[in-house]
Every structure is written in C-alpha cells, then in structure tokens.
Design brief:
The chain is of the alpha+beta class. Helices cover 23% and strands 35% of the residues. The chain has 2 helices and 4 strands; from the N terminus they run ββααββ. The protein is globular.
Length: 74
Amino acid sequence: MGIDGSTSNVSQVKGEITFEEKQSEVKFYVMDATEAISRVQKESGIQIHGILGIPFLVENKWILDFSKLNIKTE
C-alpha cells in the first residue's frame, strides 16, 4: 500500500545493511513514491531517501529513540 493509500504491485529485492558493525539481510519492497517524498521535502526541507517500516525495525531489533534522535540495536 502506498503512502496515499492506493495499492499496486511492487517489486521485492533482497539486500544487506550494515549498521554499527552488525550486518543484516533484509527484504525491500520497491515503489515509486516520488510525489509524496517531494512534497515532504518541499514542506519540511527534510530529504528522504527511503522509508523503513515496522517489520524491518522488529526483525532487526532496532529501537528508535526520538527524544535522543538515535537508533539503539541489540
């Protein structure tokens, strides 16, 4: 499901991410979110390169600490 709530078929790719010397194999779903991402950048000035979902965070045991603006890993 896209950011705007519409559904479409998307590609799935596997990749590896290394963060704090921990390597994880992950699945990514690839879709064109150019319009939504451009709007966020225009309105907030924040540049987005991708979105990590809850399944990714849970599988890799990442905890987002918004008060400290950091990521904790197990």
